[in-house]
Task: inverse folding
Protein backbone atom coordinates (compact mmCIF):
# COMPACT_ATOMS: atom_id res chain seq x y z
CA UNK A 1 0.00 0.00 0.00
CA UNK A 2 0.98 3.63 -0.48
CA UNK A 3 2.32 4.52 2.98
CA UNK A 4 3.92 1.11 3.49
CA UNK A 5 6.14 1.68 0.45
CA UNK A 6 8.13 4.20 2.48
CA UNK A 7 8.01 2.39 5.81
CA UNK A 8 11.35 0.63 6.12
CA UNK A 9 13.66 -0.03 9.08
CA UNK A 10 16.41 2.04 7.47
CA UNK A 11 14.10 5.02 6.86
CA UNK A 12 14.71 6.65 10.22
CA UNK A 13 12.74 9.85 10.81
CA UNK A 14 15.92 11.93 11.10
CA UNK A 15 16.49 11.21 7.40
CA UNK A 16 13.21 12.94 6.60
CA UNK A 17 14.21 15.95 8.67
CA UNK A 18 17.56 16.10 6.89
CA UNK A 19 15.86 15.54 3.54
CA UNK A 20 13.42 18.38 4.23
CA UNK A 21 16.33 20.73 4.95
CA UNK A 22 17.91 19.68 1.64
CA UNK A 23 14.67 20.34 -0.27
CA UNK A 24 14.23 23.75 1.39
CA UNK A 25 17.84 24.62 0.55
CA UNK A 26 17.28 23.63 -3.08
CA UNK A 27 14.22 25.89 -3.12
CA UNK A 28 16.28 28.81 -1.76
CA UNK A 29 18.88 28.25 -4.49
CA UNK A 30 16.04 28.42 -7.01
CA UNK A 31 15.11 31.84 -5.65
CA UNK A 32 18.52 33.29 -6.54
CA UNK A 33 17.50 34.35 -10.11
CA UNK A 34 14.54 36.30 -8.67
CA UNK A 35 16.76 37.93 -6.03
CA UNK A 36 19.34 38.89 -8.68
CA UNK A 37 16.58 40.38 -10.84
CA UNK A 38 15.27 42.43 -7.89
CA UNK A 39 18.79 43.58 -7.02
CA UNK A 40 19.53 44.56 -10.63
CA UNK A 41 16.30 46.51 -11.03
CA UNK A 42 16.81 48.27 -7.70
CA UNK A 43 20.33 49.26 -8.75
CA UNK A 44 19.28 50.32 -12.24
CA UNK A 45 16.42 52.47 -10.98
CA UNK A 46 18.41 53.69 -7.95
CA UNK A 47 15.68 52.41 -5.67
CA UNK A 48 15.89 50.89 -2.21
CA UNK A 49 16.12 47.09 -2.23
CA UNK A 50 12.69 45.87 -1.06
CA UNK A 51 12.68 44.04 2.25
CA UNK A 52 8.99 43.15 1.95
CA UNK A 53 8.19 40.15 -0.28
CA UNK A 54 4.91 41.73 -1.45
CA UNK A 55 6.79 44.77 -2.75
CA UNK A 56 9.37 42.57 -4.47
CA UNK A 57 6.64 40.55 -6.21
CA UNK A 58 5.16 43.76 -7.65
CA UNK A 59 8.43 45.07 -9.10
CA UNK A 60 8.11 43.20 -12.40
CA UNK A 61 5.55 42.51 -15.08
CA UNK A 62 3.23 39.77 -13.70
CA UNK A 63 4.20 37.08 -16.23
CA UNK A 64 7.89 37.64 -15.55
CA UNK A 65 7.26 37.53 -11.79
CA UNK A 66 5.37 34.26 -12.16
CA UNK A 67 8.22 32.74 -14.18
CA UNK A 68 10.94 33.85 -11.77
CA UNK A 69 9.07 32.70 -8.67
CA UNK A 70 8.17 29.34 -10.18
CA UNK A 71 11.85 28.58 -10.86
CA UNK A 72 12.32 27.81 -7.18
CA UNK A 73 9.85 24.92 -7.47
CA UNK A 74 11.90 23.34 -10.26
CA UNK A 75 14.91 23.31 -7.95
CA UNK A 76 12.79 22.02 -5.05
CA UNK A 77 11.44 19.19 -7.20
CA UNK A 78 14.99 18.26 -8.18
CA UNK A 79 15.79 18.23 -4.46
CA UNK A 80 12.86 15.90 -3.80
CA UNK A 81 14.04 13.50 -6.49
CA UNK A 82 17.60 13.49 -5.14
CA UNK A 83 16.51 12.88 -1.54
CA UNK A 84 14.08 10.10 -2.43
CA UNK A 85 16.56 8.27 -4.66
CA UNK A 86 19.84 8.69 -2.82
CA UNK A 87 18.86 9.19 0.83
CA UNK A 88 15.92 6.78 1.02
CA UNK A 89 16.77 4.42 -1.86
CA UNK A 90 13.24 4.68 -3.24
CA UNK A 91 11.82 5.44 -6.65
CA UNK A 92 9.74 8.52 -7.38
CA UNK A 93 6.89 6.16 -8.26
CA UNK A 94 6.90 4.71 -4.72
CA UNK A 95 6.22 8.20 -3.33
CA UNK A 96 3.54 8.82 -5.97
CA UNK A 97 1.26 5.79 -5.92
CA UNK A 98 0.90 2.17 -4.87
CA UNK A 99 -0.04 1.28 -8.44
CA UNK A 100 2.48 -0.20 -10.88
CA UNK A 101 2.47 3.06 -12.81
CA UNK A 102 1.02 6.54 -12.44
CA UNK A 103 -2.68 6.56 -13.33
CA UNK A 104 -2.96 9.62 -15.56
CA UNK A 105 -6.69 9.08 -16.00
CA UNK A 106 -7.12 9.74 -12.29
CA UNK A 107 -5.08 12.95 -12.55
CA UNK A 108 -7.10 14.19 -15.54
CA UNK A 109 -10.45 13.26 -13.99
CA UNK A 110 -9.66 15.13 -10.77
CA UNK A 111 -8.28 18.08 -12.76
CA UNK A 112 -11.37 18.35 -14.97
CA UNK A 113 -13.81 17.85 -12.10
CA UNK A 114 -12.33 20.69 -10.07
CA UNK A 115 -11.87 22.90 -13.15
CA UNK A 116 -15.56 22.59 -14.02
CA UNK A 117 -16.61 23.23 -10.43
CA UNK A 118 -14.29 26.25 -10.12
CA UNK A 119 -15.60 27.85 -13.31
CA UNK A 120 -19.23 27.27 -12.35
CA UNK A 121 -18.60 28.68 -8.85
CA UNK A 122 -17.00 31.79 -10.31
CA UNK A 123 -19.85 32.33 -12.76
CA UNK A 124 -22.37 32.10 -9.92
CA UNK A 125 -20.44 34.74 -7.96
CA UNK A 126 -20.06 36.91 -11.05
CA UNK A 127 -23.75 36.94 -11.96
CA UNK A 128 -24.69 37.56 -8.33
CA UNK A 129 -22.39 40.57 -7.99
CA UNK A 130 -21.01 41.64 -11.39
CA UNK A 131 -20.03 45.02 -9.96
CA UNK A 132 -17.26 43.33 -7.95
CA UNK A 133 -15.39 42.22 -11.07
CA UNK A 134 -13.83 44.07 -13.98
CA UNK A 135 -12.77 42.75 -17.38
CA UNK A 136 -9.00 42.33 -17.23
CA UNK A 137 -8.36 40.40 -20.44
CA UNK A 138 -5.43 41.40 -22.68
CA UNK A 139 -4.77 38.93 -25.48
CA UNK A 140 -0.95 38.79 -25.71
CA UNK A 141 -0.25 38.90 -21.94
CA UNK A 142 -2.98 36.29 -21.40
CA UNK A 143 -1.49 33.95 -24.02
CA UNK A 144 1.91 34.27 -22.32
CA UNK A 145 0.23 33.58 -18.97
CA UNK A 146 -1.39 30.43 -20.40
CA UNK A 147 1.98 29.16 -21.65
CA UNK A 148 3.95 30.01 -18.50
CA UNK A 149 1.15 28.89 -16.19
CA UNK A 150 0.47 25.61 -17.96
CA UNK A 151 4.15 24.68 -17.76
CA UNK A 152 5.13 25.95 -14.33
CA UNK A 153 2.02 25.93 -12.12
CA UNK A 154 1.66 22.11 -12.31
CA UNK A 155 5.35 21.93 -11.34
CA UNK A 156 4.62 24.12 -8.31
CA UNK A 157 1.54 22.17 -7.22
CA UNK A 158 3.18 18.80 -7.86
CA UNK A 159 6.20 19.84 -5.81
CA UNK A 160 3.93 20.70 -2.89
CA UNK A 161 2.07 17.42 -3.23
CA UNK A 162 5.27 15.38 -3.34
CA UNK A 163 6.51 17.15 -0.22
CA UNK A 164 3.32 16.88 1.85
CA UNK A 165 1.17 14.01 0.55
CA UNK A 166 4.17 11.94 -0.56
CA UNK A 167 7.49 12.46 1.20
CA UNK A 168 6.38 13.81 4.59
CA UNK A 169 3.31 11.58 4.81
CA UNK A 170 5.53 8.51 4.41
CA UNK A 171 8.02 10.07 6.81
CA UNK A 172 5.47 10.55 9.58
CA UNK A 173 4.20 7.03 8.87
CA UNK A 174 7.72 5.76 9.64
CA UNK A 175 7.64 7.70 12.89
CA UNK A 176 4.15 6.86 14.16
CA UNK A 177 3.41 3.55 12.38
CA UNK A 178 -0.22 4.58 11.94
CA UNK A 179 -2.26 6.53 9.39
CA UNK A 180 -4.02 9.25 11.35
CA UNK A 181 -0.82 10.94 12.56
CA UNK A 182 0.68 11.46 9.07
CA UNK A 183 -2.71 12.69 7.85
CA UNK A 184 -3.10 15.26 10.62
CA UNK A 185 0.52 16.43 10.71
CA UNK A 186 0.82 17.01 6.96
CA UNK A 187 -2.53 18.84 6.94
CA UNK A 188 -1.48 21.15 9.78
CA UNK A 189 1.96 21.84 8.28
CA UNK A 190 0.49 22.39 4.81
CA UNK A 191 -2.01 24.89 6.20
CA UNK A 192 0.61 26.64 8.32
CA UNK A 193 2.82 27.17 5.27
CA UNK A 194 0.19 29.64 4.00
CA UNK A 195 0.09 31.73 7.16
CA UNK A 196 2.26 34.49 5.64
CA UNK A 197 0.03 34.86 2.57
CA UNK A 198 -1.52 38.34 2.11
CA UNK A 199 -4.96 36.71 2.23
CA UNK A 200 -4.41 35.88 5.91
CA UNK A 201 -3.57 39.51 6.68
CA UNK A 202 -6.67 40.70 4.84
CA UNK A 203 -9.17 38.10 6.07
CA UNK A 204 -7.76 37.05 9.41
CA UNK A 205 -6.74 33.66 10.76
CA UNK A 206 -10.19 32.19 10.08
CA UNK A 207 -8.98 31.49 6.54
CA UNK A 208 -6.56 28.96 8.02
CA UNK A 209 -9.62 26.70 8.35
CA UNK A 210 -9.70 26.63 4.55
CA UNK A 211 -5.98 25.97 4.13
CA UNK A 212 -5.79 23.26 6.78
CA UNK A 213 -9.10 21.79 5.60
CA UNK A 214 -7.77 21.63 2.05
CA UNK A 215 -4.65 19.85 3.28
CA UNK A 216 -6.85 17.39 5.16
CA UNK A 217 -8.98 16.78 2.07
CA UNK A 218 -5.92 16.14 -0.10
CA UNK A 219 -4.52 13.79 2.53
CA UNK A 220 -7.78 11.84 2.77
CA UNK A 221 -8.06 11.27 -0.98
CA UNK A 222 -4.40 10.22 -1.08
CA UNK A 223 -4.84 7.62 1.65
CA UNK A 224 -8.19 6.35 0.42
CA UNK A 225 -6.99 6.06 -3.18
CA UNK A 226 -3.55 4.63 -2.31
CA UNK A 227 -1.78 7.30 -4.33
CA UNK A 228 -1.42 11.01 -5.02
CA UNK A 229 -2.98 11.11 -8.49
CA UNK A 230 -6.28 12.68 -7.42
CA UNK A 231 -4.48 15.22 -5.21
CA UNK A 232 -2.10 16.12 -8.06
CA UNK A 233 -5.00 16.79 -10.43
CA UNK A 234 -7.05 18.78 -7.92
CA UNK A 235 -4.16 20.98 -6.79
CA UNK A 236 -3.06 21.76 -10.36
CA UNK A 237 -6.61 22.70 -11.38
CA UNK A 238 -7.11 24.85 -8.28
CA UNK A 239 -4.02 26.99 -8.87
CA UNK A 240 -4.04 27.09 -12.67
CA UNK A 241 -7.72 27.96 -13.07
CA UNK A 242 -7.38 30.55 -10.33
CA UNK A 243 -4.41 32.18 -12.08
CA UNK A 244 -6.16 32.25 -15.46
CA UNK A 245 -9.65 33.21 -14.37
CA UNK A 246 -9.46 35.91 -11.71
CA UNK A 247 -6.84 37.98 -9.90
CA UNK A 248 -6.89 40.71 -7.27
CA UNK A 249 -4.53 43.20 -5.67
CA UNK A 250 -4.47 41.35 -2.36
CA UNK A 251 -3.52 37.81 -3.43
CA UNK A 252 0.00 36.36 -3.48
CA UNK A 253 0.28 36.69 -7.26
CA UNK A 254 -1.25 39.21 -9.60
CA UNK A 255 -1.72 37.73 -13.06
CA UNK A 256 -3.02 38.78 -16.46
CA UNK A 257 -6.21 36.86 -15.77
CA UNK A 258 -9.54 37.27 -17.54
CA UNK A 259 -11.18 39.06 -14.62
CA UNK A 260 -10.02 41.14 -11.68
CA UNK A 261 -11.76 41.01 -8.32
CA UNK A 262 -12.21 44.56 -7.04
CA UNK A 263 -14.09 43.69 -3.85
CA UNK A 264 -12.69 44.17 -0.35
CA UNK A 265 -11.75 40.71 0.97
CA UNK A 266 -13.63 39.35 3.94
CA UNK A 267 -13.87 35.92 5.51
CA UNK A 268 -17.38 34.58 5.35
CA UNK A 269 -19.25 31.46 4.34
CA UNK A 270 -16.98 31.13 1.28
CA UNK A 271 -14.11 30.14 3.63
CA UNK A 272 -16.04 27.43 5.47
CA UNK A 273 -18.27 26.24 2.61
CA UNK A 274 -15.61 24.27 0.68
CA UNK A 275 -14.44 22.44 3.80
CA UNK A 276 -17.83 21.41 5.18
CA UNK A 277 -19.87 20.99 1.98
CA UNK A 278 -17.86 20.99 -1.25
CA UNK A 279 -15.03 18.66 -0.17
CA UNK A 280 -17.44 16.05 1.27
CA UNK A 281 -19.29 16.09 -2.07
CA UNK A 282 -16.01 15.50 -3.91
CA UNK A 283 -15.15 12.68 -1.51
CA UNK A 284 -18.52 11.09 -2.30
CA UNK A 285 -17.91 11.37 -6.07
CA UNK A 286 -14.41 9.92 -5.82
CA UNK A 287 -15.52 7.14 -3.49
CA UNK A 288 -18.28 6.03 -5.86
CA UNK A 289 -16.09 6.22 -8.95
CA UNK A 290 -13.14 4.35 -7.41
CA UNK A 291 -15.08 2.05 -5.04
CA UNK A 292 -13.45 3.18 -1.81
CA UNK A 293 -14.17 1.01 1.21
CA UNK A 294 -12.78 0.40 4.70
CA UNK A 295 -12.44 4.10 5.50
CA UNK A 296 -11.57 3.68 9.17
CA UNK A 297 -8.66 1.32 8.50
CA UNK A 298 -7.25 3.39 5.64
CA UNK A 299 -7.41 6.66 7.56
CA UNK A 300 -6.58 5.57 11.11
CA UNK A 301 -5.23 2.01 10.98
CA UNK A 302 -1.87 0.74 12.14
CA UNK A 303 1.04 0.34 9.71
CA UNK A 304 3.31 -2.71 9.63
CA UNK A 305 6.36 -2.63 7.35
CA UNK A 306 6.85 -5.51 4.93
CA UNK A 307 9.87 -6.99 6.75
CA UNK A 308 8.07 -7.01 10.10
CA UNK A 309 4.95 -8.52 8.52
CA UNK A 310 6.99 -11.32 6.94
CA UNK A 311 8.69 -12.08 10.26
CA UNK A 312 5.31 -12.36 11.99
CA UNK A 313 4.02 -14.63 9.23
CA UNK A 314 7.09 -16.88 9.47
CA UNK A 315 6.70 -17.07 13.25
CA UNK A 316 3.04 -18.10 12.99
CA UNK A 317 3.87 -20.70 10.34
CA UNK A 318 6.53 -22.24 12.59
CA UNK A 319 4.08 -22.50 15.43
Result:
Amino acid sequence: MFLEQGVKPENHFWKYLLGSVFIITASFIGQIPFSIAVLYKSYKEKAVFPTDSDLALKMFEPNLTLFLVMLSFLFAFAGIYFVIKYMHNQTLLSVTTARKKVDWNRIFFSFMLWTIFSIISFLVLYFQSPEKFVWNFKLIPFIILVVVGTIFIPVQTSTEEYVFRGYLMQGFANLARNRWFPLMMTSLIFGSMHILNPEVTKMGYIIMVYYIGTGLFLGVITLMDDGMELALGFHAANNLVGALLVTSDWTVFQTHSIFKDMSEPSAGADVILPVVIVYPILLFIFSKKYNWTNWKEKLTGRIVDTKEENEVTDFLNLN
User: Anything to note?
Assistant: DSSP finds 13 helices and three strands in the chain.
